Amino acid sequence: MGKKIVIIGGVAAGPKAACRVKRLMQDAEVTIIEQDTLFSYGGCGIPYYVSGDVSDEAELRSTSFHMVRDESFFRDAKGVIVKSGTRALGIDRKDKTVQVQDVASGDKGDVPYDVLMIATGSRPFVLPIPGADLDGVFTISDLHKAIEIKDRIAKGKVGKAVVIGGGAIGLEMAEAFKDLWGVETAVVEFMPQVLPRIVDFPLASMLTKHLRDNDVDVFLGEGATEIIGKDGKVTALKTANRTIEADIVIMAAGVRPRSEIAVDAGLVTSPMGAIVVNERMQTSDPSIYAAGDCVEVMHLVSGKKFYAPLGSLANKEGRVAGDNMAGIPSIFKGAVGSFIMKAFDVCIGATGLSLEVALAEGFDADVALTAPADRAHFFPTEAVVCFQMVFDRRTRRVLGVQGFGPMGDGISARINAAAAYISSGATLDDFGTLEMAYAPPFSAAIDTINALAYVADNLCDGRLRKVSIESFLDWMDDFSLEEEWVSLDIRHPQEAAPFVEKFGKDKWIAIPYNEIRERFTELPHDKTLIILCDSGTRSFEIQSFLDSEGRADSLVLGGGFNMLRHIGVDWYPSK
Amino acid sequence: MGKKIVIIGGVAAGPKAACRVKRLMQDAEVTIIEQDTLFSYGGCGIPYYVSGDVSDEAELRSTSFHMVRDESFFRDAKGVIVKSGTRALGIDRKDKTVQVQDVASGDKGDVPYDVLMIATGSRPFVLPIPGADLDGVFTISDLHKAIEIKDRIAKGKVGKAVVIGGGAIGLEMAEAFKDLWGVETAVVEFMPQVLPRIVDFPLASMLTKHLRDNDVDVFLGEGATEIIGKDGKVTALKTANRTIEADIVIMAAGVRPRSEIAVDAGLVTSPMGAIVVNERMQTSDPSIYAAGDCVEVMHLVSGKKFYAPLGSLANKEGRVAGDNMAGIPSIFKGAVGSFIMKAFDVCIGATGLSLEVALAEGFDADVALTAPADRAHFFPTEAVVCFQMVFDRRTRRVLGVQGFGPMGDGISARINAAAAYISSGATLDDFGTLEMAYAPPFSAAIDTINALAYVADNLCDGRLRKVSIESFLDWMDDFSLEEEWVSLDIRHPQEAAPFVEKFGKDKWIAIPYNEIRERFTELPHDKTLIILCDSGTRSFEIQSFLDSEGRADSLVLGGGFNMLRHIGVDWYPSK
Question: What dotted CATH number matches A4-121+256-325?
Answer without folding.
Answer: 3.50.50.60
